[in-house]
Amino acid sequence: MTTEEDSRRLAELGYKQELARTWSGFSNFAISFSIISILAGCFTTFGQAWNNGGPIAISWGWPLISVFILIIGFCMSELVSAYPTAGGIYWWAAKLGKPIHGWFTGWLNLIGLVAVTASVDYGCATFLNITLNRLTGGAWEGTLPQAFLLFVIVLALHALINIYSHKLISLLQNVSVWWHVAGAAIVVAILIFAPENHQSASFVFFGTNNSSGFGDGSDGLPFWLYVLPLGFLLTQYTITGFDACAHVSEETQGAARSAARGLWQSIFYSAIGGWILLLSFLFAATHVDEINKNAGFVGTIFDTALSSPLATAIFAISTIGQFFCGMSCVTSMSRMTYAFSRDGAVPGWRLWSKVDRNRTPVNAIIAGCVAAALITLPALYAPAGLTTPVAFYAVVSIAVIGLYLAFLIPIWLRLRMGDAFQPGPWTLGRKYKALCWIACVEIVIVSIYFIMPFSPAGVPGSADFTWTSVNYAPIAVGVVLIGIALWWALSARHWFTGPRRTIDEVPAA
């Protein structure tokens, strides 16, 4: 498909070509692959799975949940093929349903993208904090305030790259893919050949661990029904953000095919690479007591199994991968902000929907990064003994819930539409019914689990309750849902009509 054909298809959907359509199909795949980033999520949320289930939450949980996420990806690939617009998920919901569906989808998606940007950049700052501490021999202390300072610096750098280097972003997305492939391969090789000892296959595939504080640390019924599913947050969080393929579809050549293909392939290849990487972690986890002592922090595996230089090299590889990931997150978030504002949904929409002379939504980039910094402020505080603040996992949960609920609405609407849906060149055919049902049920279940407390200290009314242990995801998501519902009922339903056309006629073929 030529650029003219892409622009004509966009015009049929109601928009003129304002963003520069310079991205190749590989670049479209690359942004989602970079946002999924096995060098980010597999490292930063490893402790969540280790403490809540242990090895089985990783060795079996990862491929199991990956299959469900791939099904969600297939459903979304069909939708992006039919409607390749920057608004992506929000546009699909408004098209397949009513303005109210677009309203809720857009806000959930936007909140999820802000949260995933915050969590990725905070994870990057955490690993950079550790790397600097190791490289300086402790001169850089690596405190929580220092981690937050690095987080703000990383966030600012990502904003600047996105503002001033449109062409560089596309190039860096491509570089990021190869960094993730080569970097992960190097980490796996180090963990195979450098340690003196490895864990047994029985430990990796059948070992359990319950350091959550629930169920007295046993593997009884509470373990299987509550604790272990909390460990699945590792997979559900890592393999997310793949909607980026849709958000940059107005900048992608041959978007109706390449964006659909890029979306599901980014999930598929990340699932395989991530599983191999995580298995290498588990086989190298020979000092279980020490890992438990450090709340499942993945860096403890490297410190106990490797020499200091090799452990530092792994931290550096992951940090750079996370930097690429955060850069891609800002790109996706800003395109969603631009598209949703273009349709008048965001307060001050005229400001956020502007593009500069380089056809870049500068104001949308700045606004999203500022919001990401604000919701991460609680990470300045952490319960004693924890390497990672509970607030980090809360922001992770907000990202997962916001994004996946945003995915749920258009998938459900497509299922409800049935054969009346007009697919694009990439379609599920008759399989859409089974796949859409599976996707909807899985999203509802994980959203319920990820608003639950992560530890007994986060349960209101418990003897050791502390506010720093609270999973504030349900509070944040609940306040937002109530807020946008009230906003809709009292005001938006009178003026928000969904996507606004920015073009009067479709260019002739």
Automatic annotation (TrEMBL):
Topology of the protein relative to the lipid bilayer: Multi-pass membrane protein
Chief place of localization: membrane
Keywords from the UniProt entry: Membrane, Transmembrane, Transmembrane helix, Transport
Transmembrane segments annotated in the record for this chain: 26-50, 62-92, 104-128, 148-165, 177-194, 223-246, 267-288, 308-330, 362-384, 390-413, 434-452, 472-490
Location within or outside the cell: Membrane
Top-level taxon in the UniProt lineage: Bacteria
Cellular component annotations (GO), alphabetically ordered: membrane
Keyword Transmembrane helix: yes
Keyword ATP-binding: no
Entry GO MF terms: transmembrane transporter activity
Name of the protein described by the UniProt record: Amino acid permease
Organism of origin: [Actinomadura] parvosata subsp. kistnae
